[in-house]
Amino acid sequence: QVQLVESGGGLVQAGGSLRLSCAASGRTFSNYAMAWFRQAPGKEREFVAAISRSGGDTYYLDSVKGRFTISRDNAKRTVFLQMNSLKPEDTAIYYCAQKGGLGSYIRSDYYDYWGQGTQVTVSS
């Protein structure tokens, strides 16, 4: 059984920073790409960032490029999302996901496992 547990969310003012963490257990962590998605109230789940198995390749939603950084520590079985210069439109529940195999990095249906989510709220 794969379990993903997010942490690090909270309430910050616009321009502030947060670092999200996702701790994984179960199948071999280094064999799978990881990603962060988010979902705001009343909106569809949205791709935010992804990282390849080794960490050598990263992918980002255009609106977070230059502000967010995804990274991973395979020895610690953990993926991170450093979020800087936060904006109110970043407010959402952020979910960690583990990719199932070959296919799109940005489509949620290509991911096998999901965490419970962590709330990020950015005030004006």
Please explain how this structure is put together.
The protein is mostly beta strands and 124 residues long. 0% of the residues lie in helices and 50% in strands. The protein has strands at 3-7, 10-13, 18-25, 34-39, 46-51, 58-60, 68-73, 78-83, 92-99, 111-114, 118-123.
Q: Runs with pLDDT <50, length 5+?
A: none
Radius of gyration: 13 Å
Structural class: mainly beta
Total strand segments: 11
* Overall 3D shape: globular
Strand content: over 45%
Largest sheet composition: 7 strands, mixed
Mean pLDDT: 96
Number of helices: 0
Helix content: under 10%
Distance between the termini: 40 Å
The H-and-E topology, N to C, reads as: EEEEEEEEEEE
Which helices and strands, and how do they pair?
Blueprint: E1 3-7, E2 10-13, E3 18-25, E4 34-39, E5 46-51, E6 58-60, E7 68-73, E8 78-83, E9 92-99, E10 111-114, E11 118-123
Parallel strand pairs: 2-11
Antiparallel strand pairs: 1-3, 3-8, 4-5, 4-9, 5-6, 7-8, 9-10, 9-11
